[in-house]
Amino acid sequence: MNLFWVPATRRLPAFGGANHNYSAFEEDWSYLSGGHFALEFGNTFLLGWSGAQTRDEVAVKGSSSSFNLKYNGFMLGYVPKSHKVVHPRFTLLTGRGKLNVDEIGDDRVFVLQPSAGIEVNVFQWFRVGLEGGYRLVDGVNKSPLSRGDVSSPFAQLDLRFGFSWGGD
Description:
Blueprint: E1 14-25, E2 28-41, E3 45-54, E4 58-59, E5 66-78, E6 86-101, E7 105-123, E8 126-138, H1 147-150, E9 152-163
Antiparallel strand pairs: 1-2, 1-9, 2-3, 3-5, 4-5, 5-6, 6-7, 7-8, 8-9
């Protein structure tokens, strides 16, 4: 008898994937990419880890400087009716990050990123999500930037790969 075999209905569903994020920093859109991993509980709640970083330098308004942002942290999600083909999704990411300002250096920051959107079950093992939200960045101490310069609204495309069993 194999002690590690567990029936599919008792396995803990897990997902991982890529985030493609477009953020409006001072009226200029910037691309951030990253990834995530989450365990799914009761086909409704997600607990995991997520992160992203800017892929281009963001110009600082009124200055010749630019900045890059990188962050990761704990992710909590609520996905009601996840067994339906199209369903809502609500996510909260919170964690630490690093803000690098040209010619000034690095600054450790705190990120709080709530979002809401829809998710489509393409296959049992593949989901596509589209979310929007606002990224709050606190602890910005490097001039010429302020918290408002780095905090921003965003739109995000998520590609999730993994498995989920059962339904409501």
